[in-house]
Related to endo-1,4-beta-xylanase (Serendipita indica), 184 residues
Amino acid sequence: MKVTVGFALIATLISGASAVSEWGQCAGIGYGDKPCDSGLVCIYINDWYSQCQKGTSTQQSTSTRQPTSTQQPTSSNNPTSTSTGSTSSATSLAGRMKAKGRLYFGTCIDSYNLNNNQLTSIAKAQFNQFTPENSMKWDAIESSQNNFNFNNANQVVNFAQSMGALMRGHTFGKLHVSRLRQAH
C-alpha cells in the first residue's frame, strides 16, 4: 500500500514538473509539444518557437504551425530600430525586448555554427546581438605565444555585421592556456 501511494505521489510530481512555466518554450519544429502551466497558453511565435504566456484563450494549441492567440502587437509595442536585419521586427525576440527599452537581445554563436542554415536562420530572425562561444578566447586567437589567428573570430564578426547586429566579446574562460598561469 505504501509503495502504491509513493508511486502515485511521484507520478503526480513528475507530471506537474513537466508543465512549462511562463515564457518557457512549449512547441516548435524539432522541439515537440509541451503543456503550459495552469493559466498559461502556448503562443505561436514562429515555426521553430512557441512560448507559454498569460492569455485569454482557455485552449492550448498542440500545433507548432498555428497561432494560439490572435493578439497583434499594438503601436506601443513596435520598436524603433535602426537595425537593418530582420531582428527589428516587433515579433522577433530582439524586437520585443527593444520595445521594452532594451538595446539588444542576443545569443551565442561561433564560426562552426555558421554553416548550419537552420541555426543561422533562427539567429538572424530573432537576435540583434551575438557573443562568440570560443573564437575570441585567448587560446583560440593565440594558440601559442606570438602565433595569432583571428579567422574564426572574424567569421562571427562578419556574420553579425552583415545583418547590422552588435557583437559582445567573450574572452575569458576557465580553461585558459597554461602559459598564462605560469607567467605569475
Summary: Residues 79-184 form one domain.
